[in-house]
Specification:
The protein has 117 residues and is mainly beta. It has one domain. It contains one helix and eight strands. The protein starts with a helix and ends with a strand.
Length: 117
């Protein structure tokens, strides 16, 4: 029994991260932190299951809000929301860490994101 447990821990899949934690910096904008739970993007177990809502919690300086995460096959990650209280926010970061953020004011700014988790 112990050998099976150790073998499972040694599996390369056991060590894969299931969540991406990112921190992003932009000129003139507070730091942005968010995470993407990759399990939310798994296909449904039953094709008749209803679509599941994907969510991430975003921290923008002192502000915190819920957004929909973005995870593309090309490696682009980010989030978007169009909330009546916090406004429209869109952030995308490319695999090299360069990022673009657009806030409620509508202007976009470039910055850099790094994995922190």
């Amino acid at each position: 029994m112990k050998r099976i447990a150790l073998a499972a821990l040694a599996s390369p899949f056991a060590m894969q991260a299931v969540a991406d934690e990112l921190k992003c910096r932009f000129d003139g904008t507070p730091d942005v932190q968010f995470s993407i739970d990759r399990k939310q993007f798994a296909p449904p177990l039953d094709p008749n299951d209803p679509p599941r809502r994907k969510v991430t919690r975003v921290r923008l300086g002192p502000q915190s809000f819920v957004a929909e995460p973005i995870l593309m096959a090309s490696g682009v990650r980010g989030f978007w929301t169009d909330d009546p209280v916090t406004g429209t926010h869109v952030l995308t970061t490319r695999p090299d860490g360069t990022a673009t953020y657009s806030g409620p004011e509508g202007a976009s700014t470039d910055g850099i994101c790094e994995d922190i988790g």
